[in-house]
Amino acid sequence: MDSAIRIIDVKKTFDGNDFVLKGMNLDIPKGALTAIIGFSGTGKSVMLKHILGLFKPTSGKIEVLGTDIATLPPDELTKFRCHFGVLFQSAALFDDMTVLENVCFPLLEHRREIPYKKVIEIAEEKLRLVGLDKKHFQKLPNQISGGMQKRTGLARALALDPEILIYDEPTTGLDPILTEMVDNLILETHKHIKGTTSIMVSHDLYAAFRIADYVAMLDAGRVLLFGKPEDFYKSEIELVKRFVAKGMKHQ
Amino acid sequence: MQKINKINSMVGAVRNFINEIGMMMLFFSSSVRLLFVKPSRFSEIVKHMEFIGNKSVGIITLTSLFTGLALSFQVYLGFKIVNAVNMVGPTVALGITRELGPVLTGLIVAARAGGAMAARLGTMRVNEQIDALDVMGVNTKQYLIAPRIAAAIVCMPMLTAVFDFVAMIGSYFLVVHLVELDEAIFLQKIRETLEMRHIIEGLIKSAVFGLIFGLICTYRGFFTTGGAKGVGEATNRGVVMSMVMIIVLDYFLSNMIRMYFILQGNG
Q: What pTM does this model have?
């Protein structure tokens, strides 16, 4: 099993005393959908920011597609981030741009050689892929629903055909119907784009088990358990049992 | 013990201030360097110039007209006592071009455009839009900061020129039409006293004020934390600090520029 991302004994402290990541080790398989789960404050977001190169580890190494991301100079790191597509919790759409312009933006930034007409075609194709109707293309983000914003965010994340697709808490704060819609969207997108490594950071245990190929559970800055969803049901680790029981009960 | 605590907190405040100035300088140098690095952000500069410059013309015209009127009236009342009403025109012209023009333009544009810049960037920060740009491989300082600062530097002298011109129209209207002094004397005295260097002095100052509020407001907005409250605080601190810095720097700039002209043998 090839790894898209290797996190090797990563430690992180912001103040020199308290460690948020305490020697984290994790291999995220290439081409699979991996869910990162865990209680609040276990280091999920910090880990994600390390993968994206927004934070540098205090010690340890993070290899993304074979590159030690922490050692890249700022300009190269900026370019390297084109390998990523990220769907943010809030979708993070640019509110002064239309839906279509939001999706065109990464293409106009990084594929300057492509003619503008072709950029529009690619953006429209990505928007159709995530199931957004053409009548919404010229609307501003505040003129469409939360679900449509997520779809637009995903289309934008897909614009550059990234090798790694990251979903940062994609369903937090959404109602159950919208949650299911977003989960299905993630699953369909992952199936549709072969070879893309997808990483979903979530509190939603039910969704993680339903759609992910692999699940990593974090606790206190370490990986408590990594495996297939069924491994979690069989686990004898007390915290895993409690988390699974609570997650399923909540669902 | 209380005295020591007071001293400690004062030392801490000074250290924080120096630290912040240092951070701002680093922020400025790293941002402005990017203006000369590809990809070109010329269209962004033009977009921000439209917002800072074009959209400020109305408010600058209105305030400058009334500044010209009010200042001329006060100067007229004062000079009337000493029988020197012929000097109203040049006094107002010098005051406007060298001091009031750049300072008031700086204060008005800092409040209007600077506040909007800080609020916009702060909102982008708390809504994860800046993070989105970061992970999209876009250099956020090059895309968001450098064009705004450049636009502020370019627009401020233009707006100051508008301020100066309209304020002098106000002054002319009051002096010639309301208090009915001689038009020829008014214009002649201004021609005799006002030199190009006085206008340039004001324009140089205004460019520096553009840099100051552009830098402070973008810095505050870019590093906003803490949701909507944080955006409000960033905007408030950005605008207040810009205004204070404009007024403080005005004094030092005036002296520096005057010193320069003296050294050039043109004092």
A: 0.85
